[in-house]
Amino acid sequence: MSRFRAKIPIEASIDDQVIDKVVEELYSLEPYSKLGYTVHYELPMPSIDALSEAISLSRTIIFPGYFGKFELPSDSIWDGMHKNLERLSFILLEQIFRAFCFECSMQGALDCAKCEKRAKEAAGYLISSLPKIRQLLMTDVKAAYEYDPAAKCLDEVILCYPSIRAITNYRIAHELYVMHVPLVPRIFTEMAHSETGIDIHPGAKIGERFFMDHGTGIVIGETCIIGRNVRIYQGVTLGAKSFPLDDKGKPIKEVLRHPIVEDDVIIYAGATILGRVRIGRGAVIGSNVTVTRDVPPGTKIVQRRPKDVTLEKGAGI
Predict the structure, then answer these.
(1) Fewer beta carbons within 10 angstroms: which end of the chain, N or C?
(2) pLDDT tens string 232-248
(3) CA–CA separation, 66 vs 48, rounded Å?
(4) What is the value of pTM for the model shown?
């Protein structure tokens, strides 16, 4: 049997009038206005593709030799890193500038000179912070290697562990968050969320030697504070219990609503900690436990052990 490819006749193409009508409907601002949002077609938004490149470049700079397209001899690493930093600086400056312009437009007071100045300050701050970020990330890598018996070497942790990928994005995003950069920090952490299933808000404060084993399903809220040498396992939620409402019944923003986890705490799989509670130093929270109150230092919170019940001849049913 011979194979053939059918040719679509020109007459079968979609009518231009249909295309025009769809364009007119999509271009209409009415659906956006109903949501209280104003579209600015002339104002470019931050580019997801460009920010994805920025994260990749940052990872290549922080972990030289592990990521990137090319293998560099030791005497060329300096040149390669210099070029990557120049490219990263260019992308960050443009994308952060776009984010500030978007914020200004939402406030109805577009000031490009001010946005450009703030973008330069924020981008410069992040570039200057990269050595500090690498130092923090290496403590995270070492913690993962020490606490996970399945880890064969530090290289395996850097290359393979989703927790390191997620915490890298977070630590970069957090530096922009403290500089009050809109949109971009959240885009960075949501990239990691999509890739790893680990959801860390860039506003959270996380100390050194932070280890997330397996990682899938972990949620860390915006106002969460985590000390040093903390271990958490898959499915852990550090979330909010409830939201205070304003006069119009809408949640009040920027309220301290997430847990404080002190140094050396271990939180096992599936545990949920809600509200502005404090988990004391060295405490252990067992699997699938829900905590809504303070836990004193050194305390172990676990589920009750199941009872052994013997039923004979239907008794007790």
Answers:
(1) N
(2) 999 999 999 887 788 88
(3) 23
(4) 0.86
